[in-house]
TrEMBL record:
PANTHER family: COA-BINDING DOMAIN-CONTAINING PROTEIN, CYTOPLASMIC PROTEIN-RELATED. SMART domains: CoA_binding (SM00881). InterPro entries: CoA-bd, NAD(P)-bd_dom_sf. Signal peptide: none annotated. Residues 21-115 form the CoA-binding domain. This is CoA-binding protein.
């Protein structure tokens, strides 16, 4: 978010509220999903498919398959109404994606780590959607289900201190 001077005035859901969102979610649509393994959306998709209970759908108008699964051109093209729309798109695209999430009847708009757009939040909240911004679904899911190592692995350690060598 370097270069921006806009103050953050929107208040996001608390940790217990985010946990409730994830617990009530059955399906996730990843908008801006990529078939490039170096992209964050690919890493999140891999995690969600292998380590979460969610039905995962990919949205990208230029891709046809990601991780062996079909890719849809838009949220409106999905075979289901996603509970949660996880967005990996440029800042200026976010209000439009929020409107698409509203139009298809999603319950939650989730803007990934580094994404903050109060206009998009306003569009979604005005239509009754829950909104999470500047947080990663993968990190949040892992946080609530067993602890995280810096690399995203469960350490089994519940402490901020390193174990002695």
């Amino acid at each position: 978010m370097s270069g921006t001077t806009t103050a953050r005035t929107w208040q996001g859901p608390s940790a217990p509220e985010r946990l409730a969102i994830l617990r009530s979610t059955k399906s996730i649509a990843i908008v801006g999903a990529s078939d490039n393994p170096s992209r964050a959306s690919y890493f999140v998709a891999t995690y969600l498919l292998s380590s979460s209970p969610y039905d995962v759908y990919f949205v990208n108008p230029r891709a046809t398959t990601i991780l062996g699964r079909p890719v849809y051109k838009s949220l409106a093209d999905l075979p289901v109404v996603p509970d949660l729309v996880d967005v990996f798109r440029r800042h200026d695209d976010l209000p439009g994606v929020a409107q698409e999430a509203v139009d298809v009847g999603a319950k939650t708009l989730w803007l990934q780590l580094g994404s903050w757009n109060e206009e998009a939040a306003g569009v979604a909240e005005a239509a009754g959607l829950k909104v999470v911004m500047d947080r990663c679904v993968k990190i949040e899911h892992a946080r609530f289900h067993g602890g995280l190592h810096l690399a995203g692995f469960d350490t089994g350690v519940i402490s901020s201190r390193r174990a002695p060598a």
